[in-house]
Amino acid sequence: MNILSEAWSWLTTSAHWYGQDGIWTRLAQHLVLTVVCLLISCLIALPVALVLGHLGKGGALAVNISNIGRAVPTFAVLVLLLLTPIGRFGEGPTVVALVLFAVPPLLTNAYVGMREVDQDVVRAARGMGMTGRQMLFQVEVPLALPLIMTGVRIAAVQLVATATIAALAGGGGLGRIITAGFNLASTAQVVAGAVLVAAFALIVEGLFELAQRLAPGRVRGGNTG
Amino acid sequence: MPDRSVAGPLTDPGPSHPCGGTSPRTGEPDGRPATAPGCNGRVTAPPDDCLARNEWICGAYLSSRRDILWGAVLQHLQLTAVSVLIGLVIAVPLALAARRWRWAAGPVLGVTTILYTVPSLAMFSLLLPVYGLSASLVVAGLVLYSLTLLVRNILAGLRAVPEETRQAARGMGYGPVRLLVAVELPLALPAAMAGLRIATVSAVSLVTIGAIVGYGGLGNLIYSGMNTYFKAQVLTASVLCVVIAVAADLLLLLAQRLLTPWTRRQS
């Protein structure tokens, strides 16, 4: 209990919230890293997945890439990138590693979503004289949207977690509060940082959950009418 | 470049002179004169091997650091195996409880999902007041992560047992315990094994984060290699991590085939 009250008093000390290493700065870094890398990952993964799914090609790659991604330690990739020339560009290794780990869930879910679209509907669309592009954007993507959004949600949570680990390799973000706490041998600061990181991750997950509930039924995947 | 002076025990002093103790190499060509004094006052030729040049792939690293590497691999395997086994021992009763009592399913799945959302570094940090800087901290964190994957998959496997099968067993006079052990659990095995494989592969990768408390198996080598810019060490340890993950996955796949011969004939 003692540690918890110490962590609480660390969190409620206003000096810890402001300044270059303050909580607000770290929170902003974490948020920017997550949002920017999520956008980059979506721009890379979604077009590839949608086209592959539309053509029905490359399925083995799109599905297995998630399993490969799981076997490679995030920390190892961060450090390897840090020691390459990319390491000279400040947050370069963090951004590249974050994107690398966010792409697989996006790719796999979007691809599976596209393949699971009822083929009768696709055939009907073709029979109505739709072109490939029309079928893709007016039929397949809307029907695959629930799974695509699930991929975005998994990727976002993954990004928050990976951005935390980036602190171990010198990257910015809330994880730095934890590593600095370990440096100072301050258990209170380590716990306080961990609470902030956990809260951030749970809020991101909660926001996606909320968005999926509020979305129209079609996007939720509840009914296809 | 951001500050990288994060704390952590060094298990290896980094790429050093063969007789030890010199500054870390930077990867530039070794410009010292050929008569530079070596250790113990003896005159030795400057090393011009891949360690001195700080190359990514280095055979001399493998041979000179064999013991360190072997120790790290053993620690990695131990941490992974212990955590996954404890996770399994806890997950089976939880999944059975969630299957048996409808009201238990929501809380069990909810809590394990929340645990899974907490980033690994934060999870280890939250356990710090309980376990201190110990191997138990890493094991406890990994157990909590494997729980989600295991409970979800075992429960999915149990729920997928056809009601007809269950009724047939009951009709043959099977009691609840025998029904569970002889019918339901074997039929849930493929899904459970899939969960076990994912949990094991994830655990192998997450052990590396244990380096923050000094118990990270190969992660320790990656961590110290990062602080000394020792490329061969970082690459070797990373590759070994992936090799362990793939080997564990294949081993479990083999075990699954041997345990569930009936699934082979169908497919």
Automatic annotation (TrEMBL), chain A:
Chief location: membrane
All copies of domain ABC transmembrane type-1, residue ranges: 27-208
Alphabetic keyword roster: Membrane, Transmembrane, Transmembrane helix, Transport
Organism annotation: Streptomyces poriferorum
Annotated Pfam families: BPD_transp_1
Protein name: ABC transporter permease
Similarity comment: Belongs to the binding-protein-dependent transport system permease family.
Subcellular localization, as worded in the UniProt entry: Cell membrane; Membrane
Topology of this chain in the membrane: Multi-pass membrane protein
Residue ranges crossing the lipid bilayer per the database entry: 31-56, 68-89, 95-114, 135-168, 188-208
UniProt cross-references to InterPro entries, sorted A to Z: ABC_transp_perm/SBD, MetI-like
